[in-house]
Amino acid sequence: ALAMPPAASQGGALPPPGPVKGVTMNLAHSSGLSAKVVGGMAADPNDPDRIFYVAGSTVVYGHLGKTGGQSFLRGHDDDVTCMAVSHSGKLIATGQTGVNADVVLWDAVNGKELFRLSEHDEGIACLAFSPDDRLLVSCGIHADGKIFAWDTETGCIVANGALSPRETNAIAFATKVQRNGTYYTFGTAGKEEVVIWGCDAGRGLIGGQKCGTGNTKRYFTSCIFSPDSQELYAGSKSGDISTFNVQGCVLRSWAPCCKGAAQVFMPVDGGRYYLVGGGDGSVGVFNPHKPPTVLDALDYVWEFEGGVTSMSAVNDDGARSGNPKMVVCTAAGRKYVAYVKRRKAGVANPTPVLLEESHVDAVSLVQFAPPDADFGDQGPKAHANSCMQAVVSCGSDGALKAWNLNPRPVCTMRTKVKSTAMAPMCVCVCDQMFMTGWADGHVRAHDNVTGELLWTLPDAHAQGGVTSIAVARGAHFFCTGGAEGMVRVWDMRKRQLVSTFKEHRNRVVGLTVLSDDLHVVSASRDRSIITWDLVRECRVHQQTQHVGGINACVINQANPDAMQMVSVGQDRSLSFWDLMDRDPLQIVKGAHSQECTCAALSSQGVLATGSKDQTVKLWDFDSGRLLAAQHAHCGSVSSVTFSADGRTLVSGGEDGIVMVWDVAVDR
Q1: What is the per-residue pLDDT across 86-117, written as a single tens digit (0 to 9) for each?
Q2: Beta strands at 615-620 and 626-631: parallel, antiparallel or unpaired
Q3: Is 495 left (phi over 0), alpha (psi -120 to 50) or beta?
Q4: Are 644 and 368 in contact (CB under 8 A)?
Q5: What is the phi-psi region of residue 48: left when phi exceeds 0, alpha when psi lies from -120 to 50, beta otherwise?
Q6: Beta-carbon neighbour count of residue 499 at 10 Å?
Q7: Could you give the count of Cα atoms lying within 13 Å of 547 in the half-sphere of its Cβ?
């Protein structure tokens, strides 16, 4: 059998002597972005070391390729669907989906909200700034069907009208402003249509002319104007580029460019040619003066994992010396830095550098691995003198990843379960493998190093799935809890059922095998916490939370003779218990403003809780005193976990972000 001590986050280590006086909680690094938002990442035109990117309902700005130093633009209450950075780099505009489909205009220098534009309904499809930064144009989604031009200095409406095409995917401004800086030209592209617009800011007028396409039918996904504003280039889902004459609004030509959808344009050398990011991960070249042939479309500058959703030039010394770089984001949740120009014989341009990898959907689970867990050559065990720590995270799309924290998360293992089970419901990290429970009722074990599926325990809990897993310290058995309320004990080597306990009436949300390997504590959404004797196969003790279902329960096993635990859940409170007492020792009411979703206990005696109110809070386990609080995520906090030494906390959220926190305890 594999040696599998319980994960560090389960507690049990003796905390340092002395009461906790205080705790400092600082964000070391935030990893994650909304990788599927087209144009959702951009380099700062004024600072080559800074980038902006969308993450859930926020915009993150921080150092390019460096750890920490990130700040957040918080002003939306739903997912951000589009972002635009002004040409001067002084302004940022963001639009969201949902009932409050606002456009927010930000000061990119200090991160302050300048204006909130609330005229759209249901959602924003795309945004664009004029070349002089005086105008911002916003396009709604199909259900909204409106287009607005805004004055960026006052936040007032300049002009508005009915959007065309109704399903707009992209917008771009012409480079030239006419009539003494009052007449602007821009284009929109979408389902089977490209429209050239004119906006007379002085008179408050706006209007568009649909471009003729003849018998050519395309679903347009991107657009950009030529440097002289005489032509508009529009990319399509079929991977070709259509060229439209602006004056006549007619299709002049089209040419293949990439194998996937032409999703993103980036001008090079002042618009002499363009890089085109494809939905297949390739970056091709479009030269208007020498349109590519079908064979040219099979060649590419770079190829990335996942469809290219953002490309932005980095304004550094390389750009001024003729060897510019760009930042690239892909739908696979990866950020790269790559050289812009095509590779040539004898030119030693290095391959693209992977800056960071992240989940592309909600992060449902995070858990630190035991200190001696083996994660291969890139794992902490192979770097004994380093401060690396290993974490396993699970996404709602079935993606499973292992990370080294130093403190920036570096992905060492990735795999994905292709099953109708969708997201894993629980995880337990062991020395050589990690176990996950799924909605299809199966328990799956994967190798820590390769992510290979080692074995599957089918139908462990067929009704509703496996919601909790815990492993004995001796590694000879493990326990599972199910959505139907059952607790089951399994032989580790044979993976055969040993015992079944049937007293819970709702799903089991937490399991802990006590240090004697003879007792198991289970917590359930039915508000009950039960201690089971595994030898006599009976209930030893039961506590019942007064109000609201339980979402998480953690036990402090530092003193085996007087074990204490805390439960959190729907009542938004912390309930502290002695393992053998019927009534709670203490109830901290109103611990969070919304439902508590998760909890973890450190070896330092610090309790961490996460909530639907998007905050992570730290508490003194002995007294129930609040020590620190941070507005962490832009969605519900789904999971928290402590490192073995209690100095690092990791939180995962529905926004798809994994946050690493430095925790310093003062005694």
Answers
A1: 999 999 999 999 989 999 999 999 999 999 99
A2: antiparallel
A3: left
A4: yes
A5: alpha
A6: 15
A7: 10
Question: What pTM, to 2 d.p., does this model score?
Answer: 0.88
Q: Phi and psi for 266 in degrees, rounded to 5? A: -140, 115
The pLDDT assigned to 408 comes to 78
Kindly state the tokens that stand for 13.
Answer: 């280590």
Give the range with max mean pLDDT: 64-68, 350-354, 585-589.
585-589
492: pLDDT strictly greater than 70: yes
Would you put residue 30 in left (φ > 0), alpha (ψ -120 to 50) or beta? beta
Distance CA 130, CA 115 (A): 17
SS3 (DSSP) at 318:
helix
Q: Which residue has the higher pLDDT, 120 or 349?
A: 120
φ/ψ of residue 119, rounded to 5 = -100, -15
pLDDT tens digit sequence for 127-161: 999 999 999 999 999 999 999 999 999 999 999 99
d(CA 30, CA 123): 27
Instruction: Tell the residue number behind the tokens 């099953």, with chain if given.
Output: 419
E strand spans, 56-90:
58-63, 71-74, 80-85
Tokens of 135: 């105008």
Mean pLDDT confidence for 41-68:
89
pLDDT above 90 for 17: no
CB 137 within 8 A of CB 187: no
| Cα gap 119→103, rounded to integer Å | 8
Gyration radius of the chain over CA positions: 28
510 vs 165: CA distance, rounded Å: 51
| Greatest Cα-to-Cα distance within the chain, rounded to the nearest angstrom | 89
